[in-house]
Amino acid sequence: MRPLLPFLLLCAPAFGQSDCTPLDTTGVVNVKNATVADLSARAKSWFASTYTNSKAMVQRRDDSTRIVVGTGMSEYPVKNGGYVSYTVEITCKYGGYTYKVHTLKHDNADDGDKATASANVVPTYGSIYDCPMCCELHKTLAKEQPASVAKNAKQCEKEIRPKVDAIVAQVVASLTAGMGAKAP
């Protein structure tokens, strides 16, 4: 155990906050012969039909630049696993659009409800990052308990990131389908 401890203490700063950036996904999608106004209408329609939760909504719509920004929320795919919230930013241009899914955050309770949180088996991971310590909870634990670094990095790699990546993939697939169809 003794030789392992210096190694873990050396690794812990590598997983510190300064080396991590918030997880985000961006893309450019071409939509043949689509006008800016049409794509902007499709983006607004997609938000309205995809997110019916009162916490998920369009936050900003700029008709002059054709940028639509909104928040979404998806269930974390584990029984009583809570939710992952995120921001979706869509910039419409003639013949296509760009998207960015960012500011991902996991919470094990809807609306901070303590009763729901105590029933959930998954802790609140907090903000999701693009690094081995993929969440706020594990970054904090790495500082407080350096011996937990390897275990938490493995949990991020094997459990948390694949689930979050699947949520983001579902959002992007839904957006792509919604933007390819005519807005009502």
Question: Any key phrases for this structure?
Answer:
single chain, 184 residues, alpha+beta, 6-stranded antiparallel beta sheet, 5 helices, 6 strands, 24% strand, elongated, disordered N terminus
Characterise this structure.
The protein is an alpha+beta fold. It is 38% helix and 24% strand. A hairpin with a 7-residue loop joins β3 and β4 (83-93). α2 packs across α5 (149-180). Residues 1-17 have low confidence and may be disordered.
What is the makeup of the main sheet? Answer: 6 strands, antiparallel
What is the straight-line distance between the termini?
A: 64 Å
Helicity, in percent?
Answer: 25-40%
Percent of sequence in beta strands: 15-25%
Q: Catalogue the unreliable spans.
A: 1-17
Number of strands: 6
SSE order, one letter for each helix or strand: HEHEEEEHEHH
Rg over CA atoms: 19 Å
Q: Mean pLDDT, nearest integer?
A: 79
Shape: elongated
**Given the helix and strand composition, which structural class is it?**
alpha+beta
